[in-house]
């Protein structure tokens, strides 16, 4: 099962690169990108994932523009060669590793197209490895890199073509094990699912900041990472980062919705200072537009040798409390340390979370 990557000194096991180190059916390797312009009110997201033990590759491209979110979804049999990062009308190309990537979309039936180039503003930041169990079963075990950048190029949505030269955005690459695809069967869980996830990559003029938090049902952090990220070219992946000692997030929820009306990031730094950043949401991007909790186009599901489809909705007509709409990325204005920035506040709140008054699986808060 030799492929093009086997010609490089990258092997981590005695197997060819195409053979995962784990036999877990939920092994995955994924690209994610977003881009946004708060002045013109648009936001796009891209995802492309490979699930080698399921032999599936899938991708989505979704644009929120003028109050409408349009998506194209594609799925097929995964190629053995990991260099082939294209499925249906969507492709991701690594032009220069960790610095320049290209996204192309050609989906006229869904009214979507794109010719976009992401150029890094910062080094890639390695987030701490995250592992989560359900009883004895590993349900998450992955590593992610996050990187801030700018976009050049254009995308088409509906009848509009949008130029996005200089627009900001974030990308990540994650790989490992995560629940994907069709349910595995076996014994049912003994308790309601619980997952409380916050992710906040922010751009400022002279630096970027990062925060990622996972809480248990009591509101205790079981995963916590926050840092200040320097810009290229003055820094690279070997440059030490300024990490926070602790990170906390205060959230004011929208009435009846598991989503923020505003949020405040509080970082206790090793120099003894507290750094406070206030986030004000500007618009909301539904993550099901790129497969998360999508009723049909969820990640890793087998749709046959080749399948392409689309979805579309008006944001104002959605029920924000519906389970499929709980996972969101909010474009936010960020204010802190005398600076104003822009970025994303991603949230996924499943199950209980005592500090916010959440008790059931997808119940809405009842606090005043």
TrEMBL record:
Name used for this protein in its record: Tocopherol cyclase-like protein
Species, as recorded: Pseudonocardia humida
Lineage: Bacteria, Bacillati, Actinomycetota, Actinomycetes, Pseudonocardiales
